[in-house]
Prior knowledge:
With about 325 residues, this protein is an alpha/beta fold. The protein is about 40% helix and about 20% strand. It contains 15 helices and 14 strands. An 8-stranded parallel sheet has the order 3-2-1-4-5-6-11-14, with helices on both faces. The protein has a 3-stranded mixed sheet with strand order 7-10-12. The chain has a 3-stranded mixed sheet with strand order 8-9-13. Helix 2 (about 40-45) links the parallel strand 2 (about 30-35) and strand 3 (about 50-55). Helix 3 (about 60-65) packs parallel to helix 5 (about 100-120) and helix 5 (about 100-120) runs parallel beside helix 7 (about 150-165). The longest helix has 20 residues, at about 100-120. The protein starts with a strand and ends with a helix. Keywords: NADP. Belongs to the NmrA-type oxidoreductase family.
Amino acid sequence: MAKLIVIIGITGNQGSSVADAFLQDSGWKIRGLTRDPSKPASKALAARGIEIVKGDIDDIDSIKAAVQGASVVFGNTVFSEAFSNPAAAHLAKLGPGQTIREWCYETELQQGKNIADAVATVAGLDLFVWSSLSHAKKWSRGKYTGVFHFDSKAEVVDYINDVYPQFAKKMSTLQMGLFITNWKWGQAAVPWEKLADGSMVLRIPGNGDVPIPLVVPSDTGKFVKALVQLPPGKSVIAFGDRLTWADYVKLWSRITGVPATFAKATVEEHSALAPGGYGEEMAEMYAYAMDFGYDGGDPSVMSAEQLGIDVPVTRMEQYIRDEDWSPLLSRT
Length: 332
């Protein structure tokens, strides 16, 4: 009998990748949770034989209903769009003295807790895979306290360990490396700058020269499929390559043929690239990863190779060759 995997947020980058990975295996049935089953992305997945159910991670009861009967649940949350593009409706929700980043952090943390509360009720669950990130405030020993989109995910793991110790024994965590596709979100997301002579420079905040785990989002499902083959209790960092930013820029330049250099920036310089705290959030994330490592040096986090699993990852050279860089190169 086929086992059931429930994918929370199935139409997103990570969720759709997990669906792709498990669609290739006849031993699995797939159920996807989405806020809007009527949207084109939901209908496209349903047309491929996936059971699509309506659910909202702000509504615990809807999550509970969706995950019942699951052998495996993949859970992930996304930092609110208000983080980079706050609207009046978002600002109206802020408490006294609260910043938009703090509101996004508290919202995502609560959504993660909602998922945990719901999945903890599943009888017969074999594995819960939580898409997490490292706890920047903890591992930087308080130096970087504003990497809210990391800490909100990491603190869900703490919540599960504290509140549901038995459920925690069925959990594995997946830390996705830095999405190498983030340049498409603009300079504040990935600080490429085009110089007057047509060359490019990538300016990254931070003091160190630590290799950064770089990953293509569409590889998410490959790592989840690998974790399903292992006993719970694993914490894996997902990447195609670990490269210093200087080495990445050299590789990018060699493949694209565009002259490019790497330069270190300050948190203050990067913060100025976008208002409202977005630039500052990204600046602290880059500096944290450069100074302490993307996973903060957490000794529990292992690579797929260390876990003895073979994951057919997309290497950065292949990604660069296959990508259309014209939108980046045409920026003024």
